[in-house]
């Protein structure tokens, strides 16, 4: 089933810290000190004569803390604004957790993971970009290559042009209401002397 944090510590950490009893505060401190003391035990090379690659006692303790959910609880205590009184205990526990690791190893491990994640992100972005380009090409093929200004011609029945033929209307149908025989013709200029005063 899903892993859960240690019950006693979870029960002592209600959402509202003002409701916490003095016994709860003592219990939290005792559990944190116990975890610190367990992690503080120095390695004994004579006792730990395992095969190369075997997990050390320290590593097995860390794995047990992880399985129990204690690491998530420590992260909560370290980041919660209302739990700042435990900051030094949590800091000491975290420093003991990384006791056998050199800063160079930890930094290299983080960089390796970051590089792998960056590689995955880049590959995902490239896939999305290729898909978008393919969609753009498909849309371009569906569209006509050139916009046509020809909107069609319509015959207006019952309205005679010069002669016996019906009028042929070359504009859009929405312009039909404003049709007159003078549509498109240059207005005749009247000389200034002949203009009405």
Automatic annotation (TrEMBL):
Location of this chain's protein in the cell: Nucleus
GO cellular component term of the entry, any: replication fork protection complex
Keyword terms: Cell cycle, Nucleus
MF term (GO), any: DNA binding
InterPro entries: Timeless, Timeless_N
Keyword Hydrolase: no
Biological process annotations from GO: DNA repair; DNA replication checkpoint signaling; replication fork arrest
Timeless N-terminal domain sequence ranges: 11-156
Protein name: TIM protein
Lineage: Eukaryota, Metazoa, Chordata, Craniata, Vertebrata
Name of encoding gene: Timeless_1
């Amino acid at each position: 089933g899903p892993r859960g944090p240690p019950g006693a510590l979870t029960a002592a950490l209600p959402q509202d810290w003002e409701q916490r009893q003095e016994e709860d505060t003592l219990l939290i401190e005792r559990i944190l000190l116990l975890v610190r003391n367990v992690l503080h035990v120095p390695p004994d090379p004579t006792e730990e004569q395992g095969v190369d690659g075997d997990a050390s006692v320290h590593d097995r303790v860390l794995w047990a803390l992880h399985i129990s959910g204690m690491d998530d609880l420590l992260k909560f205590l370290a980041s919660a604004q209302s739990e700042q009184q435990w900051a030094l205990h949590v800091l000491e526990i975290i420093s003991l957790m990384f006791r056998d690791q050199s800063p160079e190893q930890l930094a290299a491990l983080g960089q390796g993971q970051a590089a792998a994640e960056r590689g995955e992100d880049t590959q995902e972005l490239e896939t999305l970009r290729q898909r978008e380009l393919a969609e753009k090409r498909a849309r371009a093929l569906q569209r006509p290559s050139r916009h046509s200004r020809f909107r069609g011609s319509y015959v207006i029945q019952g309205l005679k042009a010069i002669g016996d033929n019906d009028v042929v209307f070359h504009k859009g149908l929405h312009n039909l209401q404003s049709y007159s025989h003078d549509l498109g013709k240059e207005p005749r200029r009247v000389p200034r002397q002949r203009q009405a005063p």
